[in-house]
Amino acid sequence: MSARLSDIPVKIENSGNGTVGGGLIAILREISEMLERLSRYDDTAAIDLRTLPFSPADYQRLREFLGSGEVEITLKVDGTSRVRETGYAGVWWVEHRNPDNELLAELLEITNIPEIIVTSSDEITRSASQLRERLALHSAGGNTP
Amino acid sequence: MTTAIREQTVGEVLSANGVSRRTFIKFCVSTASFLALAPGMGQVIAKQLLKTKRPSVIYLSFQECTGCLESLTRSYTPSVENMIFNMISLDYDDTLMAAAGKQSEEARDAAIKENYGKYLVVVDGAVPLGNGGVYNTQGGKSAVQILRDTAKGAAAIVCVGTCSSYGGLPYANPNPTGAVPVSDIITDKPLINVPGCPPIPAVITSTLVQYVTLGVPALDAHHRPLAFYGNTIHDRCYRRPYFDVGKFAKTFDDEGARNGWCLYELGCKGPTTYNACATVKWNEGTSFPIESGHPCLGCSEPSFWDRNGSFYAPLAAGLIGSLAPAGEAAGVGAAVGIGAAALSRLRSRARTQSRAAEKTASKED
Fold first, then answer.
1. A108 and A137 share a domain?
2. Which residues contact A85 (CB under 8 A, 6 or more apart)?
3. Are A81 and A128 part of one and the same domain?
4. Which A-chain residues 70-129 have CB contacts (< 8 A) with chain B?
5. Sign of dihedral through CA atoms B268, B273, B275, B279?
6. Would the pLDDT of A3 be above 90?
7. Full-model pTM
8. What is the reported pLDDT for B308?
9. Which of these ranges, A101-105, B40-44, B358-362, has the smallest mean pLDDT?
10. Looking at beta carbons, which residues of chain A come within 8 Å of B36?
């Protein structure tokens, strides 16, 4: 494996006094606005983190500022996806990776629960009938499943 | 039998192949992020794709080196298998298809007939018009004839690579075959140019995904999708801060070059080249030419072989050179170096380009 640019450790500049920079404040205000809308009108929203002109240090600060909450879900769907609730309930940090573990998308979702987690009613109907068929097959053959 | 498969929607094909809803959502969200669309568009793409019929695609190869197709088949976002088997119905591609000779020509004619008015034509390569078009013939027909016949019933045309977009290498001086870009021949169809020598693989596939889901994307003055060709390489270059403070590499791989200093003086065409190399990068996101220490050649711009004098002369020198008589161009350019007139010309050109792009963008909106 050849070395990647991201393997080179980058020293994070830290102001150390807990203040946050201009770009970061703008994003945090946007998140705050989105949370407000979610709470009042049930409006979900998302921010694509890869489109922000953020330095690695800005990312780190955003991560630290939002912190981590109680939920962390790993999905195995064509590679790994990680869905984590931040310290602010309703603000989710979502990361999609391909089977080679390369980052495909990184988003902040402002929602009760990210859509990708929820099982759809179609899927439930399909799995109910699959289970029914399997049980019927087994009882017809007289075997235990 | 192929007809039956083609008439299925993307959603039906995916569920028949055991692709789960979550996998599909992930694919759509990643694609939207990649296309620099608003994050909510992932869901829109998902809904749209599930009910979209897979469009028939006819891929024509003319005066080209197959580098663009090589690039396309190395795409990983979305992978080309994903594209070909789930999202489009690739009905004709003389390089990839199993059929040959008469059979393959019949496949093209059948696809045209069955999907008249609805299919997408992808063109790779310039089209020679010299001597009645004899410099490129397939199955006894000239390239220009095949293009005209195929384009007639097309919904839109996507030009993959600099050759089909602007003429590319065949078009370069002295252009012995009379090569022209597709836009010189077909003027009555929506046209999307995806230039580059070759274009970034994921830019080709994502442009096709965007066409399938949302139609013709927002384009700039050169018909390039703004999502990928909206910024110059220079605007998004990680060496840009060194340009701003005037730190330039003087020779290849000197200490400055290794320290990430700007490659402008080594001939970098980044400031006048619109492409996504600096952000999307190459070889599965590994790097892009400037990151490997080589200046941008400007391969996604019109006439890139001929413009700006040498690949290795600084941009401003090239611009001065182009004002001088042809024979003296390179020498004069190098001797004069960066002049105020050239710089202001460079700036006004950049302004004109960005204005033109904005105009196109607002028209699209």
1. no
2. A68, A69, A70, A71, A72, A91, A92, A93
3. no
4. 75, 77-79, 81, 96, 98, 100, 102, 104-107, 115-116, 120, 122-123
5. positive
6. no
7. 0.71
8. 61
9. B358-362
10. 51
* Residue-number span of the structural domain to which B201 is assigned: 2-227
How does residue A24 score in pLDDT terms, banded at 50, 70 and 90? Answer: confident
B225 vs B81, higher pLDDT: B225
Digit-coded pLDDT (tens) for A85-99 = 999 999 999 999 988
User: What is the extent of the structural domain holding A124?
Assistant: 118-145
Q: Which residues of B touch A80 (CB under 8 A)?
A: none
Q: Do residue B178 and residue B56 come from a single domain?
A: yes
Contact A62, A80 (CB under 8 A): no
CATH number of the domain bearing residue A101: 3.30.1370.140
Residues of chain B numbered 288-307 and touching chain A (CB < 8 Å): 291
Q: Is the CB of A105 less than 8 angstroms away from the CB of B33?
A: yes
**Are A115 and B25 a contacting pair at CB < 8 A?**
yes
Among candidates B22, B38, B286 on the partner chain, residue whose Cβ is nearest the Cβ of A75: B22
Contact B307, B322 (CB under 8 A): yes
Q: Are residues B248 and B130 in the same domain?
A: no
Helix (H) / strand (E) element for B330: namely helix B329-336
Q: What is the mean pLDDT of chain B?
A: 81
Q: What is the pLDDT of residues A33-55, one digit of tens each?
A: 999 999 999 999 999 887 676 76
pLDDT digits (tens, 9 = 90+) for B84-136: 666 788 888 888 888 888 999 999 999 999 999 999 999 999 999 999 999 99
Give how many domains chain B has, as a whole number. 2
Between residues 50 and 79 of chain B, which touch chain A (CB distance below 8 Å)?
76-77
Cβ B315 vs Cβ B271: under 8 Å: yes
CATH code, domain with B262: 4.10.480.10
Mean pLDDT within B283-305: 89
Say yes or no: A23 and A47 in one domain.
yes
Q: Which of B183, B203, B227 is the last residue of a domain?
A: B227
Among A69, A68, A58, A67, smallest CA distance to A25 is for: A58
Nearest to B26 among A77, A106, A123 (CB): A77
Residue of chain B whose Cα is closest to the Cα of A51: B36
Give the mutation candidate from B23, B27, B28, B33 for the A interface (greatest A CB count, under 10 A): B33
A16, A102, B285, B292, B296 from A9: Cα distances, Å: 20, 18, 18, 19, 27
Residue A105 lies in a domain: yes
